[in-house]
Structure formats: C-alpha cells, structure tokens
Amino acid sequence: MAMLMDGRAVGQRMLDACAEKVKAIVAARGTRPCLATVLVGDDPASVTYTRMKRTRSEAVGMRSLKVELAAASTTEEVVARVAALAADPAVHGILVQHPVPRHVDERRVFETVPSAKDVDGLTLTSFGGVSFGLPGVGYGSCTPEGIVRLLDAYQVELSGRRAVVIGRSPILGKPMAMMLLARDATVTICHSRTRDLGAIVAEADVVVAAVGKARFVQGAWIKPGAVVVDAGYNAGNIGDVDFEPAAERASLITPVPGGVGPVTLAVLIDHTATATARQLGVTL
Ligand code: NAP
Questions:
Q1: Ligand 1 in contact with 166 (CB < 6 A)?
Q2: Ligand 1 centre from 233 Cα, in Å?
Q3: What is the pLDDT of residue 7?
C-alpha cells in the first residue's frame, strides 16, 4: 500500500512559517499584509473557498478584505472593482475566485490584477515568469506550486523522471507541466483528445490528475511504485483518481480531501506574505 502524502501537515508547517513572516513584516513596517478576495456571484463552493482563504490569512496575522459582487455584474464592473484594489496600497494580494459567471470575461478580469499582487499566480505575466524561470516575476499558480511543495516535502526525485499531467487548464495542468519541466522531469501533458491515456499513464513515475472527473484515473494504469497526485475535487469529496486500487500500486499518493487542497491554500497565504514584503521593501 502507498504511503499517504499528508497535505494538511505540510500546509500547516507552511502556514506556521507564514505567521513568522507576517510578524517580521509588521515589526519592520507596522503594516499587516492584506489579502483581498473577490467573489462574483454566490456559487456555494466558491463561497466556501473564499471564506477559507480569508480565515487562513487571518489565522497567520494578516488582514483580509471580502469583496462580493452580484452574479449579474458585467465584465466592466468586475474589472473596475479589481482595478480599485490594484490601486489601493493597503491591499497587497488580490484573489479573484475562479470560475466567474460565464458572461464575465475571466481573462480580462485576471489581467487587471497587477503581477505584483497576483498572489494566485493566474496572470499571463505570472505564467510567463514561471515558464521562463524568471525569479521574482509574478507568482506560481497556487495548486501546481502546492503540488511541487508537497512532492518536495516527501523528497520525491523529479529530475529525469517521467511525469504525466492529465489536464491542460491554464490554472492547473499547464503551469503544473511547466513547473515539473523546470525541475527537469520529462513531462507529457494529456487532455480530452489524448489517445491511449492508460498506456501513457502506465509509463509515469509521477502522475498528476487534474481532470475534474470523479475516479477517472484507473488503478490499473498506475505503474507499481509511481507517485500519484490527485488534484481533483469533485462532488462528495471525491478525487480524480480511483483511490483504493491506485494506492495498492503507488508508492506515495495524496488523499482527497487532505492532500492538494491544504497546500494550495498555504501557497496562496505564503505568496501574500512574499508580495507584501516585496511591496514594502522588507527582506524576509
Ligand atoms: P478544467 O479547466 O475543467 O480542465 C480539465 C482538464 O481535463 C482539461 O484540460 C480537459 O481537456 C481534461 N480532460 C477532460 N476530460 C478528459 C479525458 N477524458 N481525458 C483526459 N483529459 C481530460 O479543470 P481544472 O480547473 O484544471 O480542475 C481540474 C480538477 O482540479 C477539478 O476537479 C478541480 O475541482 C480541481 N481543482 C482543485 C484545486 C485545489 O485547490 N485542490 C484547485 C483547482 C482545481 P481539454 O483541455 O481537452 O478539454
């Protein structure tokens, strides 16, 4: 049986370190880092996610600012609100909860966040900075960066290993592939048009599932001894990997919940501390 990668424990260690960073920033400048969460509409899962993000930021000593906009808001209205946060020196990080209602141009809204405050790592600049390996240019997308931190916490060797990422979304699959590439893995990106997915996954030393379909990744696909990361989060707390049969073959596997989610959240908080320090000229 595989060993579980405990995202809650790793995430808590990261949050404890953030609390120390916040103390250092407050001591140096007398300013508390502030994370603004922007929620458009009232999707129940998004309401929960934004609340958790604010709660965690406050738990490490940050301020949080709750911005809620009606589901019927236009792109211009959302952009205007985000632009106001971008111009506010008391706000250090801006998170626009994905997804926004369909009629809103999400990319335009994301691009309104200046890269210095893009703590969720979703702008073109952040993706470019991560893909080009430019330190200090934007921030990594939180979920893939959390996955890398989790793999590091369990000392998973990535250099030269075969990694398969299932999913190519701009938020998860694509930046995940770039981050694994930056760590010298040999990366294959799979998507809905991929043929013989099972055969490709069967060659992977590291599998990242980011599909959004419950129990989609079959246990029989997993190479014995592979490391399996399940980023999926489907109704009923079910991941994208068929957990039990996959765990029988993997060496390490993330549970759902308690795997990728907590480290994702911790990365967001950590980025907010870093963004504040950079904006205020504090060396952490
Ligand atoms: P998404 O935007 O819907 O992307 C899903 C990806 O899966 C797409 O690239 C799609 O391919 C691919 N796909 C769909 N069906 C497939 C199939 N039959 N074979 C292979 N690939 C297939 O979703 P997302 O935002 O990346 O999220 C993915 C999952 O991660 C969801 O369960 C989401 O809830 C979860 N998530 C978790 C966190 C966290 O903090 N834990 C954060 C974000 C997302 P095409 O591009 O070809 O359509």
A1: yes
A2: 9
A3: 98
